[in-house]
């Protein structure tokens, strides 16, 4: 497929903005936890939570946008690749919502309100429960996070494959 054809079937502007800002928010949230793990400062864990909650709201808005805007028709590819892409896109949506939810629930079940950039606080809206706090902590760090890493790496590998092996200009649809 040549340039002109793939440019004709681009993602909508809103979908493209939602896509790249989600990626940047994920990167920032991850960098903040790395800073926290290495420098052990309350500033970074606080910012990690605030950016994580921002990503939650961003993903909810992104899903609503996805329901109401038309996706461009898929590029020609083997059926199995189409299925893997659909499945992994769905998994990215699901895990990027489940991850901040688990973080939020681990905090409130641990009895800690969540401060959002000093603007407002999400109060402890549940009865604190240590075992549930632990459960959501385990989900956050041991289950959902490895899934996000796996699906994101698969996603980027697929983008590189389209760009440099198939050379079908898929990336231009999202630029
Ligand atoms: C998509 C958004 C988020 C991502 C990608 C993310 C990612 C991570 C990662 C990678 C870790 C380190 C896990 C490890 O120890 O190996 C972590 C820890 C943590 N996250 Fe998140 N997080 C997100 C959202 C949130 C939210 C919204 C909150 C709370 C409101 C939160 C609270 C925490 C806390 C308290 C820890 C430290 C847990 C511990 O030390 O045991 N996270 N997060
Ligand atoms: C260098 C990094 C990235 C590149 C090059 C990239 C590229 C792309 C491209 C080209 C598409 C459109 C595929 C198509 O037209 O069929 C796409 C879709 C998508 N990307 Fe990425 N992406 C990147 C990072 C990410 C990250 C970090 C996430 C997760 C936060 C993500 C989540 C998604 C999702 C969920 C879709 C499907 C969109 C939909 O069906 O609504 N991407 N990406």
TrEMBL record:
One of its GO terms (biological process) is respiratory electron transport chain. InterPro entries: Cyt_b561_bac/Ni-Hgenase, Cytochrome_b561_oxidase, Di-haem_cyt_TM. The chain crosses the membrane at residues 17-36, 42-61, 90-110, 143-165. PANTHER family: CYTOCHROME B561, CYTOCHROME B561 HOMOLOG 2. Its cofactor is heme b. It is found in: Cell membrane. It comes from Psychrobacter halodurans. GO terms for cellular component: plasma membrane. Belongs to the cytochrome b561 family. Pfam families: Ni_hydr_CYTB. This is Cytochrome b. Coiled coil: none annotated. Keywords: Cell membrane, Electron transport, Heme, Iron, Membrane, Metal-binding, Transmembrane, Transmembrane helix, Transport. It is a multi-pass membrane protein. Residues 11-174 form the Cytochrome b561 bacterial/Ni-hydrogenase domain. One of its GO terms (molecular function) is metal ion binding.
